[in-house]
UniProtKB/TrEMBL annotation:
DNA-binding region: 24-43
Keywords: DNA-binding
InterPro entries linked to this entry: Homeodomain-like_sf, HTH-type_Tx_Regulator, HTH_TetR
Highest classification ranks of the organism: Bacteria, Bacillati, Bacillota, Bacilli, Bacillales
Domain HTH tetR-type: 1-61
Protein name (database record): Putative HTH-type transcriptional regulator YuxN
Length: 276
């Protein structure tokens, strides 16, 4: 075992007991039996160590899930997806428990962004699985179903990670396969539209550029039929290019497009840009 691996292994033991915030570098080095100097030869800071742990766990987890979804047979796909998920949670239970109980307020921007990116990667794998399993049937409900699947993953893992109950993994997985199939075949009401997903996909703490807003607005204008909403969007685009309108007029134009089903995302971007 290398010095870096030793630090990661021993630090995880402390993090699992105390949390990220309450664990100091001094405690980690004492637990490893090394000097602070040796620690800083491997990691520049505690945050860098936490990032390394997150990378190690999430890369393995996402890679395992992605392989099952992309390479597995369709008839066993959902079973193998859930089985791989919970088997991985169990195998890395200390770190899985830590991520579940650690408040996000204790993460700095880099750590929070890292988890966000891994979460988006997992969501994309789940969506790919849904489309492969249910095809056209899932077109309007795939985002709702993906959130249900993620909810199953999180909630049922608490049974053995938090409450430490003995689990029949095969029974758990078969029950979730049944539940997921029932939802996929019987859901009729969509709550999560494409526009909401676009909002969620906005990079954390990063404002879209003016060019990106103009591009989004232009695309929506091209896709819309002639209407008061389209005219309002065209005027707002012109305001982006050559500001001239009174704030009250801008507010009125934004109100015109607010409830149009194809304008929710550009309305969101424009409100943020104009500060409305």
């Amino acid at each position: 075992m290398t010095k870096k691996q030793l630090i990661m292994e021993k630090a995880l033991e402390l993090f699992a007991k105390q949390g990220f915030e309450a664990t100091s570098v001094q405690q980690i080095t004492d637990h490893c039996g090394i000097s602070k100097g040796a620690f800083y030869l491997s990691f520049k800071s505690k945050d860098e160590l936490i990032v390394a742990l997150i990378d190690h766990f999430m890369r393995q987890f996402n890679a395992d899930i992605d392989f099952v979804v992309s390479e597995g047979k369709k008839e066993d796909l959902l079973y193998n997806f859930y089985y791989t998920t919970f088997h991985s949670f169990s195998k890395h239970s200390d770190f899985a428990k830590l991520l579940m109980k650690e408040p996000t307020q204790s993460f700095n921007e880099e750590l929070f962004s890292k988890l966000h990116n891994y979460n988006k990667s997992l969501e994309n794998v789940i969506l790919s699985m849904i489309e492969r399993l249910y095809g056209e049937q899932s077109k309007d409900l795939k985002y709702d179903l993906s959130y249900c699947i993620k909810g199953f993953m999180s909630t049922y893992s608490e049974l053995f990670l938090v409450y430490k109950l003995p689990i029949d993994l095969d029974l758990l997985v078969r029950s979730l396969v049944e539940k997921t199939n029932l939802l996929a075949k019987n859901m009729t009401i969509s709550f999560i539209p494409d526009e909401l997903i676009q909002m969620l996909d906005q990079p954390l703490n990063k404002e879209p550029s003016l060019e990106q807003i103009i591009e989004t607005v232009s695309k929506n204008i091209e896709d819309m039929e002639d209407s008061i909403e389209k005219e309002s969007l065209m005027l707002l685009k012109q305001e982006l290019l050559e500001p001239a309108l009174h704030p009250a007029i801008i507010k009125g134009l934004l109100a015109n497009i607010q409830h149009h089903p194809h304008c929710k995302w550009p309305a969101y971007l424009l409100r943020k840009h104009f500060g409305k």
